[in-house]
Amino acid sequence: MDSTGAKRIEKKYKQFVRRKYIFIILTIVALIIFFFIALSLGPVNLTYYDIFQTLIGNGDTTSNAVIFKIRMPRIIAAILVGVALSVSGAVMQSVLRNPLGSPYTLGISPAASFGAAFAVIVLGAGSVHSATADAVILNNPYLVTTSAFIWCLIGTFTILIVIKFKGAYPETMILMGIIVGSLFTAGTTALEYFANDVQLASIIYWTFGNLSKGDWNYVFLLFIIILPLTFYFILNALNYNALDAGDDVAKSLGVNCRRTRILALIIASLSISVTVAFYGIIAFVGLIVPHLVRRILKTNDSRFILVSSATFGGLFLLMADTLARTIINPLVLPVGVLTSFLGAPMFIYLLARKKTYV
Q1: Percent of the chain predicted with pLDDT > 70
Q2: Coil, helix or strand for 45?
Q3: Which of 31, 93, 205, 341 is the most buried (most CB within 10 A)?
């Protein structure tokens, strides 16, 4: 190849990479803009001037209460949960080489939900209050998260057992996900059947998938857990690229396929268990966002997919939650209901597609 052809290829590659960086930058800018839009929307209307004055410490009592106690914890939680679910879904699709892989479709979210329900009902980690704003609280969020994580691992290792069989196809993974999800959903239903009225009300309200449940303590725990896990995934993007190419190729590049796959699924399970334990099941985000990102970027490169899924996932769930709490104002719709309505048609569309970027 002559120097002219090499320069042409280099130029096209730089343009290819530049488009990816532009998308990431645009989603970050959109996320910042929508952050302030979400702060202004709600039963109490706030102008952007009111928001600015409150953020610099000159707000009145009402503005301080609305922004710092109600809206901002929910907005930051929406961003962090969106990041966790989207990146975990992208990693699962990559390491399992399954275009329909996600925390929900592979049965991991129902497993985490069962673990959290077990802690709330059997171990007494949840309670009911008379106030609407804090109708359900978690007395011991650490216990709930630990229980969700343990059962999440059980669901994960069930999938890993299938991976060990030679010739396990993506359809097999989805069937196993349906089986695992149905099993843990049945377990959750059984716990509800034997629960008393207070426990039943607590667990049903908790499973709605509602971002209004948490406070600043939850946000802090999400921050210190989800961000390091997300950076771990991004730092291992090249290993996931190798797994995408097949185990033989990955081994030839020096990647320990078994260890990389198991660690990825375990860490994704931890990320999912934290979000489910605090906010319930928010379905389909881990399925929709990675596929939308792949369609937009037209690439399988995990270096771009994971970062873009993080930024776009935070934006997606923030927009969905803002719509959920304003679409039938003054009533607040659980965001899990809205994402399910959005995700079901997308799931059908993915099943019908002949080509995917996974």
Answers
A1: 85
A2: coil
A3: 93
CA distances, 332 to each of 162, 208, 216 (Å): 41, 12, 20
Enumerate the H helices of the chain as residue ranges: 3-40, 48-55, 61-64, 72-95, 108-121, 141-164, 170-193, 197-206, 216-235, 237-244, 247-252, 257-279, 285-297, 302-326, 335-352
Is 265 a member of any domain? Answer: yes
CA distance 309 to 316: 10
**To which residue do tokens 């268990």 refer?**
273
Phi, psi dihedral angles at 127 (to 5 degrees): -150, 165
Distance CA 82, CA 13 (A): 30
Of 128-132, 308-312, 319-323, 348-352, the range with the lowest mean pLDDT is 128-132
Residue 114 contacts residue 184 (beta carbons within 8 Å): yes
Is 358 contained in some domain?
A: no
Distance (Å, rounded) from C-alpha 76 to C-alpha 81? 9
Q: Does 3 fall in a domain?
A: no
In a domain, 289, yes or no: yes
- 310 residue type, one letter: A
- Which pTM was predicted? 0.85
Containing domain of residue 129, as a range? 10-352
Say if residues 274 and 221 touch (Cβ distance below 8 Å): yes
Among 5-19, 250-264, 328-342, the least confident range = 5-19
Question: Band of the pLDDT at 119, cuts 50, 70, 90?
Answer: confident
CATH of the domain at 34: 1.10.3470.10
Residue 213 in contact with residue 251, Cβ under 8 Å? no
